[in-house]
Specification:
The protein has about 210 residues and is α/β, with parallel strands linked by helices. The protein has a single domain, classed as Spore Coat Polysaccharide Biosynthesis Protein SpsA, Chain A. The protein is built from seven helices and ten strands. Strand 2 and strand 3 form a beta hairpin. The longest helix has 14 residues.
């Protein structure tokens, strides 16, 4: 994909390749307004960081000018994807996003990255109500040894377990966004009904 500009010390890790059991099809190739989610998320987050796509299986990709790497471990969930993404390249700061977020916001991503630079923590994660969003969050490369230790020595591969093992800072408000707008930016699609809802939101905005 052309036109993806990046800050040299930052990367964008796009996670895809989950089983998508609830959706029934690979969410990365679902279409929103004629655009596949893979391209849509990369486009919306253009400029956030040097992009890399991480998957856990052999996938036939469309022609995108973005590096693609595979998980080093199977059946370890998104934590293995984050490990693969952080291991690729030398960038210190990584913004992680799941491929099923049709309204992924570059403004929110930049805000979270700015918080990371100020707080000097291991991760910055948005939280709305009691729900954390670790798959639309910022992580520092220094957590790699911790991630690898969890993947190789423990049985709990959940993102919430990772956040308990590192210094994570939670953000509940984003400057310039209402709670409704932030909720939409963090919306992810798990079921066919979510896909229909995303299309309905787009239609209502026209």
């Amino acid at each position: 994909m052309k036109g993806i500009h990046a800050l040299p010390s930052r990367k964008l890790i796009l996670l895809m390749g989950g089983r998508s059991r609830r959706m029934g099809t690979d969410k990365a190739f679902l279409e929103i307004n004629g655009e596949r989610m893979l391209e849509r998320v990369l486009r919306r987050l253009d400029g956030v960081g040097a992009p890399v796509v991480v998957c856990n299986q052999h996938v036939v990709f469309p022609s995108i000018n973005v590096p693609v790497v595979r998980d080093h471990w199977d059946h370890r969930g998104p934590l293995a994807g984050i490990h693969a993404g952080l291991s690729h390249g030398e960038e210190e700061i990584a913004f992680v996003v799941a491929c099923d977020m049709p309204f992924a916001s570059a403004a929110v991503a930049h805000f979270l990255m700015d918080v990371m630079m100020k707080k000097k923590v291991d991760a910055v994660v948005p939280r709305v109500g009691q729900r954390e969003h670790p798959l639309f969050a910022v992580y520092h490369r220094r957590i790699l040894p911790i991630v690898e230790s969890i993947l190789t020595k423990e049985k709990d591969y959940s993102m919430h377990h990772l956040l308990r093992c590192i210094q994570a800072h939670y953000v509940e408000q984003v400057r310039g966004l209402t709670p409704v707008e932030l909720n939409q930016a963090l919306f992810n699609m798990n079921h066919p009904g979510d896909h229909l809802l995303a299309k309905a939101w787009l239609y209502s905005e026209k």
